[in-house]
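During the practical work, I worked with a single protein chain and the tokens that describe its fold, as given directly below.
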Amino acid sequence: MSKRRKKTNRRPSGERSGEETGSKGLGIWIALAAGILLTGAFLLYYVKREEPAREVRVIDTRPETVTALPGSLPDPVELGLPPELAAAQARFGEGADLIRQGRYEEAIQAFEEVRRATPDAFEPLINIGRAYLELGRPEKAIESFEAAVRLNPDNAMLCDMLGVSYGQTGDATKALWWFNEAIRHDPGLASAYSNAGAAYFSQQDVGRAVQMLEKAVELDPGLIQACDNLAQIYWQTGRRDEVRPLLERLVDANPHDPRAKELLASLPARSPD
């Protein structure tokens, strides 16, 4: 008597039941999702690890002579004219008042009238250039300042303002050349050192930036932007114990200026946790 063989439901090789296929597919998706999460976590860690700590504000590379607080800029250059040019002198005074009021377009018109009446005077050109700088038109400011330099080539303030103008166009090389010319003509012009320091920092020359800013602060401890920039560099380069004394001197030099006190008051926020 032959033994009956028990039937087995074998499937051809390569076939899987729906349950097995579903389980395996689910497992693949779970593994894939886990891989994506792990990769994302790694990338997030890497980005956070590589991102530099931003403990302080960005160094302000704008020029001292342009970005000082309103009212702290020197008064428009005065113009001494003979009595027969009294009308031009009066118009010059109107232009100076317009600059103080921030009415720069009208001031330019006034000084252009004075310039036409006094073609050999460089003072109207200086004030025209300053007004264009305040309007954010450095190319026009350069035209006025260069015309003024041709009339008065040894004027340190003119060289400083030309450097400011070139700096606003993004030409740091020419800006530095004019700042150094200003320093050559007047070694005591603090704003030229401050502006040169900011320009050197924009070129990542931290050593020269510190040298120039320290000289600016030595000459004029009340230059707020120079002190602030120097404090930022001290902080970022590990000289943190020098920051507070620097800002305290700034407040002493500007006892009624709220910005100086604000910088000193912000110091604890810059400290590490």
The domain at 64-270 is CATH 1.25.40.10 (Serine Threonine Protein Phosphatase 5, Tetratricopeptide repeat). Confidence is low (pLDDT under 50) at residues 1-16, 29-76.
